[in-house]
Batch of 4 targets.
Target 1
Amino acid sequence: MDGKIAELEAILYASGRPVTLTNLVAHLRLNHEMEVSNLIVKLSEAYERDGSPLEVSEVAGDRVVLQLKPDYNKQAKKFSIKPLLTKGPLRTLSYVAYNQPVEQKQVSEARGSQAYKHLRTLEKMGLISRKKQGRMTIINTTADFADYLGLSTDRTSMRRQLRSIFRRLEVKELK
């Protein structure tokens, strides 16, 4: 059993994003999702018992992710090798997230000529998807976007959460 827990930890660590229980069953060569759930509980308990800064968290769609506990985010950001979004792409992403589904042309009109470059970057990062519909290109955020920012995948809830974030940012900027 300890070997399977170590394999689970390795898979979650290497993936860097949420993994479905079904995928974990297959990769760990188990018979049922309940077995994976038991391993997840044991791994979580080990992290808790050891006072680890890591945690295994469940996200929508029967997926789990190995992540840093929020209390350690500030310290870890200084050393992160993940590509951080600069202000321009982040604002473009915010525009897309709030107005989705949105036509690419609208994004460009609202965000300027650099928007196309931002959109390519965001698509490579897996935060948005672009689909052709006739002569238009429609842009939406992905499930990875919601996971990345800890937002709901439900569009209505996501908009409400984004409004709250934007309000807090405006207040900070005014101070």
Note: The beta strands are 19-20, 54-59, 63-68, 102-103, 128-133, 136-141.
Target 2
Amino acid sequence: MSASEEDLAPWSAARTLADLAEVTARWLQGELRYFPGHNDPSEPPLAETKDLIKVLVSLNRAGYLTTNSQPGQSMTRDGNAQRAFVRGYCTEDTYKRIDAAIYGTELIALPRPPGMYHLCPVPITTVGGKNFTWGGMSTGEADAIAREFGGALSESMLDVLTTCWLVDVLDPVWGRTNLLWSKLRAGLAG
């Protein structure tokens, strides 16, 4: 399915981090039917995201533009497992709040300040007993951001995002479901 002008309008109209985070929150809540960076842009969030929607909406509205997330999932007999994980863009101040929120826990933040393109891969999903997806693999380069949002953002919005911190937060304990979300919610949206 190709995107209609109506589908793209909210994304291309965003000019600030807060604008784009609000559009993302609206998509998470089902108010918009299209997310240009989603696996299938015309489908709602994945079923595994259902229990995370409220916290993701609150994180977006608190200044952490979430672009990827997953709940923790304990190892299955088939060797499938997930670490709780979230990726997003934010200001340095918001990153400091994230860092403070997870201080003293086992949670790990993988921050990339603007202009830093170092990749630090950490497995976050296993399928069939093999590493399948990784945190710490995205960069804040304009081309990577444009691909992540399916080319739907304006040049000015891309410019804003290149000045943001790209921060992945993950729980190193496979299958743990609540620690990451409760700490981030309390630290950012509390």
Note: The radius of gyration is 16 Å.
Target 3
Amino acid sequence: MTKKEHHEHDHAHMLLPSDPTLRAKAIETLLVGKGLVDPAAVDAIVDTFSNDIGPRNGAQVVARSWIDPEYRARLLADGTAAMAELGFSGMQGEHMVAVENSDRVHNVVVCTLCSCYPWPVLGLPPVWFKSPEYRARVVREPRAVLTEFGLTLADDVEIRVWDSTAEIRYLVIPQRPDGSEALDEAGLADLVTRDSMIGTGLAKSPEAG
């Protein structure tokens, strides 16, 4: 077996759910089958963690970087350490890199081989992040994919695609919206969305927030 084949073989196993995931799914199936758990309630809990609890952590990181230039510098220099300052670390967040959007550069994150994702700051990955279509197309035609997400960028904006791996995961620092100068850190965090920290969206405007 060549080195490449060995790597692909190992990674194929990574596509399978971990033992804890399989056990959790088996328990859920058993409880649902016995009528002890409502599947809709389980889905609601997962949705809350995916869209509210998890991304709120990342939103705090972004908001702090918007109001504290020294923290932003530490975040861009060593994302793992800077996020740990706010209490966000652990499994799937050991090696974090923060990349910052600007007027000239827009960053977007993908994991082309599986679905490596920074759980401590973003929660559970959305279904589309794990889809083969997103993983393939955002590398080949990122501008078209972003347009499908409702994000149309000017032609002179460079799009940088970052490929997460088991060793490195990325967090996009979106641009601070205009008109947010009067907001405190908590108010700013309310403007930060999960998609803006993946790069498939922008932070909300204060009016929309």
Note: Residues 39-67 form the longest helix (29 residues).
Target 4
Amino acid sequence: MSHQTLTINTTGAGLYEFTHSVQSFIQSRQLQDGLLTVFVRHTSCSLVIQENADPDVQRDLNAFFSRLVPPSDDPAMHYLVHTLEGPDDMPAHIKAALTQTSIGIPLIEGRMVLGTWQGIYLFEHRTRPHQRQIVLNVS
């Protein structure tokens, strides 16, 4: 079993690809076969595997989630109670609940079994910068 924690600095809401950092971890440990678990240690961001070829995909995902779950000061969100940490906090928790905080990826012959256009992304849901910790574990 091998593990490592990555830190990703975000500058606000959006998708941050870190596929190459994960592949570097696999190569540096000379890992061959197993299950890679990628886990984010926060409740207001999430992980997604998404297309990494066309940046419009990331823009559209951001736009969709912003419309689906607007800030708590939007009249449509008047029912929210948890608002002490700013208008983006509770919506960030909702977005994280709709996505995932852990991803399992097969590892075969030292490579992640991802599709041609798939990348691993941290999906930051808060509007201000954060340092996010992501745990990589191969078993």
Note: Helices lie at 19-28, 55-68, 89-98.
